[in-house]
Amino acid sequence: MEQPKVYNKEEELFLHIGNKNFKSIEKIEINFEFDFSAIIKKINIKNNEIYYKVNCASLIFNRMVDFSDKKHNNKIVFYNELKFDNSNFNEIAYFVNISFEKNANFSNTLFNKRTYFNNIVFNCIVYFRSISIYQIEFGNIIIKENFNLSIMNEKENDKVLIFKNIKFENEKSNLNIFNIDMKINKFYLNNTIINGIVNIKNMEVETVDFKGSIINGGVVNPVKFKVHNFANRESALFLKNEAYARNNIIDALEYKAKEIELHKKELLKNKKDYKKWGDIFSIYLSSFYSNNGLNWVKSLRRTILITIIFFSIFYLPDILHLNYIINKLYYKDYLYRFAEYFIPTNYDHLIEYLKNSNVCVFIKICGIIVYFSGKIAFWYGSVQTVQAFRKFSKKE
After folding, report:
1. CB 203 within 8 Å of CB 239
2. What's the pLDDT tens digit per position in 89-139?
3. % helix / strand / coil in the chain, to the nearest 5?
4. Which end of the chain, N or C, is more open, meaning fewer C-beta atoms within 10 Å of its C-beta?
5. d(CA 115, CA 56)
């Protein structure tokens, strides 16, 4: 395999640049800070407009890369193809204020340090296929056609993928994000009005953040998109609404449960009044009974179990008259009384209990509290079970 030629100084690189119709600096290793504005000046490019093909494939950058015209802060325009594939960035890299008018190819490239693409116009098909990343950020970019990005890291690390302030040229503009059997630590899609198409496929993400993004006439298609945590409630709400819009009830219910849990955390952090305490208690109960409406079997089990516990406590005898109660009033008809307990308008057992002169007043008061608490718990659990079952039926 051909070894890359090593350049330690900028002056050495200038001698390697290709002919006037096809600029090439491929298959080299660069050990100095790469400043693209110096190359623009050296080869006398007017108005930062480049009309010929540029080949920067198979490069190794061991120092910082600044791919911009930072001196004049003017936009660089590539009217022809740009090849940056099979390269290796071992230090921080900046691609700033650039317009790509024809194919741009960054495939099979290793971005081993932080990489920034800011103020970029992609008026063409863009390829970031099978790249390896550490942290890569796309900010203030415009997508006209297809933006294709897939990640294939050889090793697990804290990979971060950031999209901020993305603009879609039209409803056919595509942002395609694929991941191949790897887990991304953080994925951001922030402050973006989605009027194009976003396809997310085969991705497992530890934490996602969709804060500030809304769907406005566009489409988001997550396929095999596994999310462990949400950075905020807004992110769970974003995916929930997207799932409902696609009639994906299964994912929508899961995202709704996450949204409720995050809402609970927000309430716990903030200053609380009676209403907020009520909301927190309601969320805790819903989570305890049915995982916020996701598990009707759990809700049914807990409803029956809690009802049995409350009824059994109510049914406990006054310990001062244990023999009398066991023989005369209580345990001989436990199952019958338990069945009566489920009837909301039947209070015969309670009335008989209150008439019993062998039970002291304090025990009677406690019994009344337990009796009605059990009834409330049963009917609350019943509602939770029915709601969760209806959602389960919609899943099916």
Report:
1. no
2. 999 999 999 999 998 999 999 999 999 999 999 999 999 999 999 999 999
3. 40, 30, 30
4. N
5. 17
Tokens of 29: 């290793």
- Which H or E element spans position 167? strand 167-168
Report d(CA 330, CA 328) in Å as an integer: 7
For 77, phi and psi rounded to 5 degrees?
-120, 125
Angle between helices 296-315 and 274-290 (to 10 degrees): 100
Which pair of structure tokens corresponds to residue 267? Answer: 């309430």
Counted residue by residue, the chain has a size of 396
351 Cβ contact list (under 8 Å, min separation 6): none
C-alpha dihedral sign at 199, 120, 28, 158: negative
- At 283 the three-state DSSP class reads helix
Instruction: Determine the Cα–Cα distance for residues 5 and 293; give it in Å rounded to an integer.
Output: 63
Give the CB-side neighbour count of residue 45, counting CA atoms within 13 A. 25
pLDDT, tens digit (0-9, with 9 covering 90-100), for 128-150: 999 999 999 999 999 999 999 99
Measured CA to CA, the distance from residue 383 to residue 58 in angstroms comes to: 63
71 DSSP 8-state letter: T
- Which of 340, 353, 356 shows the shortest CA–CA distance to 314? 353
Residue with tokens 């504005």: 37
Q: In the chain, what is the greatest distance between 2 CA atoms, to the nearest angstrom?
A: 109
Question: What is the full DSSP assignment across 19-32?
Answer: -SSEEE--SEEE-S
pTM: 0.73
Burial class (CB in 10 A: 0-12, 13-18, 19+), 158: exposed
Structure tokens, 183: 């887990």
Distance CA 373, CA 363 (A): 15
Decide: helix, strand or coil at residue 119: strand
